[in-house]
């Protein structure tokens, strides 16, 4: 089993739609969680950290479920500019912090 | 403020050769991370350097090595190149220990092609 698993997609949605991505992780000792965004042929950039209580940043909402070991990202009112690959990131301490990236979920928002 | 920079942008090598990739972190950042992103795959952690020392290593063979210089810039060396080494190599830097919840900032990457 991969340490971090994501549905690769692609998700094809119309503008204005709400779309949700899930990500599962295998290490129960995972301590920090993030969503990164990677545009085609560009470097990943931090979208948002994921906190235990859940957090929101504009149209983006992130949730963490430690009991079931998954995190989610909800995008409301999708924009064309949201088209990208969304990477789930998990960090844990194994005698030195290790950061594991999921393979990413591709999103295409259509006009 | 200048971001993470990497050089070269593209690198073409033949099988069996050695490749050297370079990374300059954001000013003031002491930690540098190297990742491999093969086509269609996620980022695979390669190496982490902090304060000039290797702190952690991913599941890659010893022919992947590197170092961090006193100015915190870093070099990734790949010896005895194989075709499967063709990938985008991303460098990231962070301010201090990621255990404190710091963010990693990525450079634009070096695209290595092995023929």
Task: List the defining traits of the structure above.
heterodimer, A: 111 residues, mainly beta, six-stranded mixed β-sheet, five-stranded antiparallel β-sheet, 0% helix, B: 115 residues, seven-stranded mixed β-sheet, globular
Instruction: State the shape of chain A.
Output: globular
Number of strands of chain A: 11
| Beta-strand proportion of chain A | over 45%
N/C terminus separation of chain B = 37 Å
Main sheet of chain B, how many strands, which sense, barrel? 7 strands, mixed
Helix and strand sequence of chain B: EEEEEEEEEEE
Summing up helix and strand content along with how strands pair, one would put the structural category of chain B as mainly beta
Oligomer class: heterodimer
- Pick out the low-confidence regions of chain A: none
* Low-confidence segments of chain B: none
Number of helices of chain A: 0
| Overall pLDDT score of chain A | 92
Give the radius of gyration of chain A: 14 Å
Backbone shape of chain B:
globular
- Helix % of chain A is under 10%
Largest sheet of chain A: 6 strands, mixed
Kindly name the structural category of chain A: mainly beta
Strand content of chain B: over 45%
